[in-house]
Amino acid sequence: MTVRVIIEAVGRTGLSAERVREVAGAHPAVLAHLQSADAATLVVGAAAALGHDPDERAQFRANVFDPLSNRGVELRGTLDRPEEAQVLPSAYRPNPRAEELQAAAAVLRADERFPAGDDVLIYQPMPPLADLENPDGTTTRRPTLGVYSPSGEAKHRIVAVDIAAGSVDWSPAGVSVLMHPGDCESHLPAPVEQLRDRGGPDQVQLRVVDGDTELWNMIVVRPRASAPQNPGDGSGVELRNVRYRGRIVLRQAHVPILNVQYEEDGETYRDWQYEETRFSATGSDPVGWGWRICTQPPRTILERPDNDAGNFQGVAFHYADGELRIVSELAAGWYRYASEWRLTDGGTIKPRFGFAGVRNPRTCMRHRHHVYWRLDFDVEGSANDVIEQFNDTGSTVPEAVPIVQEVARKRRAPARFWQVTDKTSGRGYQIHPGEHDNTTDPYGVADLWFLRHHPAELYDGNPGTNNQAMLNRFVNGESVSATNVVVWYAGHFRHDQNEPDQHQGHVVGPDLIPVS
């Protein structure tokens, strides 16, 4: 019997970006705090409904940002009465999106110090912003841009651009301006002038059907719309309401936190996961651009030896040999990430995350990537899950130890794997660490967190100056026995350009194996 992969576009519960802008523009407290008189200049995003099975009365949170005053607020309200939302000052600063980067690039090219040559390329670097603190305590928003000049004395240089003033700072404080003269990686980065979004649905309903049997049914959200955003940095390919053979197993599964830590100079970055970039995928687009059912395996930068390009941007599906792959490629500065889920006919779920980069001296430096999956288990429903840790006792049967209170754990002996099951039916999933997932260092904090579900705990808040994952703030002693359980799972990958095999271990992720 032939397995069919079926997708159809579906709407989502929440406020559109247009509605958020309308509410903000009519709210006196918003404009007063932002010191803005023009709602059209505000940076807003869609506000997804919070909680399980949200309806028209569900809560929402939305950040509204004014790039001119460099100030933001957060709206907290309900979908049925957004005009009554509470307005709170917010320290969250969104990263520049394509339109702002292209405006900054126009200012940069007009600068008299911009290098000559047709081979000069402008790309988005790290960090994404280099704001200027003014004497009066205010700050000026300044997106950063990387200048790649192959024939120049320094091939790479990072500048900061004040778009409103039309000026360029060629030596922004706190940024590695003139970088190491060498280059790593073979792929040239895509210039910011080429960044574009060709539209298409934000999410689809996915069904995997074998004859008359429905194996999988879920919502798949593309990276550009993935939660959390505003505040938050997206989460790659996001899965919602995941059902296997008609039974709910996961309410939400995604990667809200992704960090990079450099060993040599101690620099750290919080990477974003909403920016879709191009990869190779051959097939058909049954619901429009951004969603492709492939006739052959898609190839991200991990499989492509040529360049930072491709014929597709969005989410690709490919089924073969009893397994469906759901794949997208992400960009964050000079990094490229493969966001992937693998679903087997037997019910196993394999979250996967791959690491690569485009040409830049920073990737030559030894660094560590820390990726944090958030797995909202709803086995047989949302209120009766239990957690066990299986320890290696030397016997053929590992010892099951219940976890009854919120806790953070590391992957170290005697722990072998963990299990989340429904207390009544015994059905659930084991969490088996991947071969290359490694054990955390002090910066990575931990390897797993077992938490009680709270709708607003999608994002660890302002991570501070070192961008460290602040998930321990959610560990406050609550019970996780016979309740609604969320598991955060971290993978840690050390990238050393001097390793003999550059791609050894460049993909991390656990296996979620069904129980009963």
UniProtKB/TrEMBL annotation:
Lineage of source species: Bacteria, Bacillati, Actinomycetota, Actinomycetes, Streptosporangiales
Superkingdom of the source species: Bacteria
GO BP: amine metabolic process
SUPFAM superfamilies to which the protein is assigned, alphabetical: Amine oxidase catalytic domain
Matching InterPro entries: Cu_amine_oxidase_C_sf
TM region(s), chain numbering: none
GO terms of molecular function: copper ion binding; primary methylamine oxidase activity; quinone binding
Source species of the chain: Streptosporangium subroseum
UniProt-recorded name of the protein: Copper amine oxidase, enzyme domain
Region listing for Disordered, in residue ranges: 497-516
